[in-house]
Amino acid sequence: MKEQVQKTFEALFALEDIREVLREALPTGPDPGEEQAIRAGVARVRAILDDLEAGTGSPSVTKIAGSLGIRNREEEIINIQPIQAAGRLTPEARKALIAYGDGYSTCDACRKPFRLDKITKPPIAAFHEDLARFLNMDVARVVSGARRGFQAVTSTLVGKGDPVIVSALAHYTEFLAVEGAGGAVKEVPVSKQNLVTPDAVAEKIEAVLRETGKTPALAMIDHVDYLFGNVHDVAGIGKVVHQYDIPFLVNGAYTVGVMPVDGKALGADFVVGSGHKSMASPAPSGVIAATAEWAPRVFRTTAMTGDLTHRKFGIKEVEMLGCTLMGANLIAMIASFPTVRERTLRWDEEVKKSNYFIDGLLAIEGTKVLSEYPRKHTLTKVDTTGSFDRVASTHKRRGFFLSDELSRRGIVGEFAGATRTWKLNTFGLSWKKIRYLTEAFQEIAAKYDLPLATGTGPA
């Protein structure tokens, strides 16, 4: 680990040790022994900061709790891992984790009616309203991941044997949500361009009607799929679905938090997003939003009464199991939200950077892009069978040679050992890093005598 990164972590840990002394002190203040411990801790922090400034010093902490390594992935390297790019925490979110890490930290000022979305200190209630406005929906809730949003909707609307429309590119969690509710997935085939079209959805609905005699209970379509990162015409699909009076869920796991998403313009009855994939939030976290028509059903409150105690919990929402995303995960999501909201307005710039890199990669002879091109998203699937895999076929490290070369240049996140088809995500990288990334791939190509298009070599 680089000295300055190592010392930054050590300083943070040393400050936490001081914090622990303050936590053990009485409300009246530290006793003499605790004051001495604080002074010793401050001296330790000063020494670490001196090393940090000078870029010197040997590591004094290499493990947390004796077994956990220090994760320095985002401090030292460029990470193009497909599912991690838009989940990097903002500085505000990292500070929030420090301040609100205790288990029920969100519940310090919880008062009647004792429900998460009603808490005003910290401003959780206001955040729920902000989320709904952000997505142009009527009601929003935070959940522990997009999958819990799918589950809330399917358990509300899908019964035993009910058909549910999904795409042939649907995420496995959509399948599980339908299966858990007792339904049956009916997949819409994709076009040659790996796109889900409104016409294909209409044809599938008609086929399901002929096959089962039942109107599908729900349609779930990914705004951007996880396999190719293609942007699908969900607005057009929404119009088709509503012609059959089928409720429509838009899976925005790869769009909510990175690009503008207007739920009502898309024709969505439900919009589901992922906090840890696309909203700069810790895992697990996510959001589900609904229109006024469907919110009373998916956010229904319990009507059950205990047979012995006659207890009632009428304010608690059944699909949310009362309260959902509590503690530091939620607070970090709130802390990141101003940045997340603002960055969606710069989506065009992110797409430009994605295309700059992909163009540079395509300049390596034999490389193809399997996603739609030019790119409309930062998640991309590429095919390097005709380029880097040619090297792998004779290299002693096989496909891992590419991982080795990238690692030496401070780049990680590609599928280790994969040199045929693999995915990457450039979201959030600065232009400086985008250019470095592009040049690194072209340098590796040149090293192994893979031809480059004229004028596309490293600057």
UniProtKB/TrEMBL annotation:
It catalyses: O-phospho-L-seryl-tRNA(Cys) + hydrogen sulfide + H(+) = L-cysteinyl-tRNA(Cys) + phosphate. The modification N6-(pyridoxal phosphate)lysine is found at K277. It is an enzyme of class 2 (transferase). It comes from the Archaea. Pfam families: Aminotran_5. GO terms for biological process: translation. Homodimer. Interacts with SepRS. This is O-phospho-L-seryl-tRNA:Cys-tRNA synthase. It comes from Methanoculleus palmolei.
